Every structure is written in C-alpha cells, then in structure tokens.
Amino acid sequence: MSLASFTTAVAALGLAAAAAAGSMEAAAPPAHPNAPTATGATPARSAWSWPLDPAPSVVAAFDPPDQRWGRGHRGVDLAATVNQPVLSPADGRVSFAGTIAGRGVVVIAHEGGLRSTFEPVRAQAEVGTAVPGGGVVAVVDDTPGHCAPSTCLHWGVLRGETYVDPLSFLTRRPIVLLPLE
User: Fold this and answer.
1) 110-128 pLDDT tens trace
2) Disulfide-capable partner of 82 in 10, 67, 142, 146 (CB 3.0 to 4.6 Å)?
3) Whole-angstrom Cα distance, residue 67 to residue 76?
4) Secondary structure tally for the chain: helices H, strands E
5) From the CB of residue 149, how many other CB atoms can be counted at a distance below 10 Å?
6) What local confidence, expressed as pLDDT, does residue 46 receive?
C-alpha cells in the first residue's frame, strides 16, 4: 500500500469514527485553534501538548502535498523509543485503534472537528474511551517505519479531511532546521 493510500485510509477511518462518536463533531471549525470564530470571538489559548514526554526532537517536519492525493508528509515524525508512552495532546475520545497496512494506528477525535493520528503504536485505550490531554493512549511500537533504523512516532492532525501541521497547535513550537537544498 502506498503512503497516499495509507493516509487516505487513516483519514477515512477517522471520519467514520468521528461521525460515530457524534459529540466530537463540529460544524465549521476555525482555520486555526486560536483564530476568531464566526461570531468574532477568539477562543481560549490552545492547551495542546506534546504527545511524548519529554518533548521530543522533530525528525521530519510537516510538508503538505500540493494536492490531496500528491506526495508530501502529512504530519511530523518525532524521535521516540520503543514502548515509550504516547499521550493524547488534548482532551478527546479514541475513535480508532487498529492496524492499517501492517502498522498500529490510534486516532483521537478532539473538539472543533480535529483528529490526531499516531503510528506505529500499540493501543492502550479502547475505541470510545474518553482521554484527557496528557493521558496515555498507546505505546510506540517496534514496527519499522520511514525513520528506520531509528524509531519515531508519526503524529498527524486532521481538520475534516485536510491534514494540518500538528506543531501549530502547541503553545511553544520547536525550531526545525531544514537542509539548504
């Protein structure tokens, strides 16, 4: 299965699970968690936190594709260790926990129509479980991924069907050095 097919499958599962969860759906979420709403009010500062403790190094940054189906990196890769606990970055509800393309995946539905995706992981919370921000939802699995031979956690965030930069939800963003190319 290609990366594009894999991410499409994760997005579809997340959408179906979010629809089933009902309470986590929202009509039109703002463009950013701190952006003004339709009424002009600015929501409270985001309370999202790193899904790993301590705060990890960013191995690969968010690089969205030009088109939904195109090549890109639909999340961030975070340096991790096998069996390291994966924490919910904000309050939410587990909407999917299973295997896609041989990798363990956990999806958490958050308020405002947002969903966090994590892989490769072994779920520690069942579908439907309400999780607080900072609550353990999985552990990093030893399934080789695109960080091999190192271990990393891939963290994606979706708003509807569109992937957005997970680091934009953190109150303190890391400095990411990119190649000069």
Assistant:
1) 999 999 999 999 999 999 9
2) 142
3) 18
4) 1, 11
5) 5
6) 53
Q: Report the range of poorest mean pLDDT among 58-72, 79-93, 107-121.
A: 58-72
pLDDT of amino acid 176: 66
Q: For residue 115, which of 38, 16, 44, 35 has the smallest C-alpha distance? A: 16
Do the beta carbons of residue 59 and residue 77 sit within 8 Å?
A: yes
Question: How far is 109 from 22, CA to CA, in rounded Å?
Answer: 10
| CA–CA separation, 12 and 134 (whole Å) | 25
Mean pLDDT of the chain: 78
Tokens of 170: 């953190």
Domains of the chain listed by start with CATH number = 3-25+48-169 (2.70.70.10)
* Tens digits of residue pLDDT in 17-49: 443 444 333 333 334 433 333 433 333 435 799
What is the identity of the amino acid at 65? P
What is the spatial distance between Cα 84 and Cα 33, in angstroms, rounded to a whole number? 28
pTM beyond 0.70: yes
Q: What are phi and psi of 15, to 5 degrees?
A: -65, -45
Cα 22 to Cα 9: distance, rounded to the nearest angstrom: 20
DSSP state of 73: B
Cis peptide before 149 (omega within 30 of 0): yes
